[in-house]
Amino acid sequence: MILLYNHIMELILTDDNFEKEVLGSDKPFLVDFWAEWCGPCKMVSPAVSQIAEELKDHLRVGKLNVDENPKATMKYQIFSIPSLKVFKGGKIIGEMVGAMPKVVIEQKLKALLNLS
User: Fold this and answer.
1) Phi, psi (rounded to 5 degrees) for 77
2) What is the pTM of this model?
């Protein structure tokens, strides 16, 4: 199977690869649930891309299009986007909903991951 990467360090997630890539990851995993038509998602996307690169030693990052992947969207009860969820050991350890500046996302992630 070929894994598609968006930008530099972001994995394109689907209903088919979600369990293997996210739940089976040996590192914490930040999932950006988004949609093409979502303006706030487009505002958050560059920040998520930068964080993917900056925290690549501590965190894996992927994007899941909610319109194209209904199973994961329903399973994780994504009712508002953008929705960022952090998984570790197959469980959600943190989440952020709505558009927010990169510095806020970064602070929350670093606190969740015990990074200074």
Assistant:
1) 50, 55
2) 0.91
Q: Which residue has the tokens 């930068």?
A: 50
Cis upstream peptide for 82 (omega within 30°): yes
Q: Which of 11, 30, 31, 38 is the catalytic position?
A: 38
Check residue 3 and report its DSSP letter: P
Structure tokens that stand for 42 in this block: 């487009």
Based on the residue annotation, tell me whether 84 is a catalytic residue of this protein: no
Residue-range domain boundaries for the chain: 5-112
CATH number of 5-112: 3.40.30.10
Pairing between strand 10-13 and 60-65?
A: parallel
Q: Which of 41, 48, 66, 84 is catalytic?
A: 41
For 66-114, strand residue ranges (E) read 83-88, 91-97
- The yes-or-no answer on residue 25 being catalytic is no
Tens digits of per-residue pLDDT, 35-75? 999 999 999 999 999 999 999 999 999 999 999 999 999 99
For residues 63 and 66, give the distance between their C-alpha atoms in angstroms, rounded to a whole number: 9
